[in-house]
Design goal:
Elements (H helix, E strand, L loop, with lengths): L2 E3 L14 E4 L2 E7 L13 H19 L6 E8 L5 H11 L6 E6 L9 E8 L1
Helix pairs in contact: 1-2
Length: 124
């Protein structure tokens, strides 16, 4: 049976989707944009935005009883591939050992004018 995961410590969904769904020991986290859930604002710059995205992912993982060590796959969406190196530096701090499989793509634009969005899959 699927379990809908929601926490106030991550931004509310801006469309008809859930923050995350857990089913059969797997957690599927919807793409997180860098909205600070306390203020509703998006920080300036790719470094600060990636840090906020990772904080949002951490809050959802925690709510569902998972950790970054449980993450097996990430998909990173960037508004511009010139931001890849800076995003990668922040991202790497959260996966210093045994990082998950990952894909990174540049897209035409992201919701709310964000520079980065990351979706995540974790397994227990």
């Amino acid at each position: 049976m699927k379990n809908v995961i929601h926490t106030e410590k991550a931004p509310k969904a801006i469309g008809p989707y859930s923050q995350a769904i857990e089913i059969n020991g797997m957690l599927f986290i919807s793409g997180q944009v860098p909205v600070n859930p306390e203020t509703g604002s998006i920080p300036e710059g790719i470094t600060a935005q990636t840090e906020q995205v990772m904080k949002n992912i951490a809050a959802i993982l925690d709510k569902a009883g998972y950790a970054f060590s449980d993450v097996i796959k990430s998909t990173c969406l960037l508004s511009d591939m010139s931001n890849f190196k800076a995003m990668n530096e922040v991202y790497g701090k959260y996966y210093s050992e045994n990082p998950p499989a990952r894909a990174a793509f540049a897209v035409k634009e992201l919701p709310l004018g964000a520079l980065v969005e990351i979706e995540t899959i974790a397994v227990k």
